[in-house]
């Protein structure tokens, strides 16, 4: 891995971390398209790489900031995390049987739907 690729990865992680910490998302909505477009990854490789970033405590500092301010429902978060673990495993299994095109289109539809919903709600 070249120093340029390492620097690019650190910069991408920093930008996505800032955005994720600010708006409370996991980052995949930004990371996956960036990996596809800037690194030329297939949809499945981008998704797998995005999931791999979750293995490290990437959200620890953002979580701690919100927790200290009293903005975390820890009990609910733990239940969601348990469901997320099982759902992530099942989704990962299912994704292996879909084409990159189907995954990319499904991802795009989800992002557009969420964007429209966020834009029209008060």
Automatic annotation (TrEMBL):
**Topology versus the membrane, per the UniProt entry?**
Multi-pass membrane protein
Q: Give the family, as the similarity comment puts it.
A: Belongs to the 4-toluene sulfonate uptake permease (TSUP) (TC 2.A.102) family.
Q: Does the keyword Transmembrane apply?
A: yes
Keyword Thylakoid included in the entry's annotation: no
List localization entries: Cell membrane; Membrane
Q: Which InterPro entries match?
A: TM_pro_TauE-like, TSUP/Inactive_protease-like
The protein's name in its UniProt record: Probable membrane transporter protein
Classification via PANTHER family: MEMBRANE TRANSPORTER PROTEIN MJ0441-RELATED, MEMBRANE TRANSPORTER PROTEIN YJNA-RELATED
Keywords per UniProt: Cell membrane, Membrane, Transmembrane, Transmembrane helix
| Cellular component terms per the entry's GO annotation | plasma membrane
What main location does UniProt list?
Answer: membrane
- Ranges that cross the membrane: 12-39, 45-64, 76-95, 101-120
């Amino acid at each position: 891995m070249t120093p340029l690729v390492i620097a690019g990865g650190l910069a991408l992680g920093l930008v996505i971390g800032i955005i994720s910490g600010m708006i409370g998302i996991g980052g995949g909505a930004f990371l996956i398209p960036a990996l596809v477009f800037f690194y030329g990854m297939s949809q499945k490789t981008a998704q797998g790489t995005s999931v791999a970033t979750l293995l490290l405590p990437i959200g620890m500092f953002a979580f701690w900031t919100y927790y200290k301010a009293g903005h975390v429902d820890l009990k609910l978060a733990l239940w969601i995390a348990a469901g997320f673990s099982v759902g992530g495993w099942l989704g990962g299994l299912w994704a292996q049987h879909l084409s990159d095109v189907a995954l990319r289109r499904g991802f795009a539809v989800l992002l557009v739907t969420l964007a429209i919903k966020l834009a029209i709600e008060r």
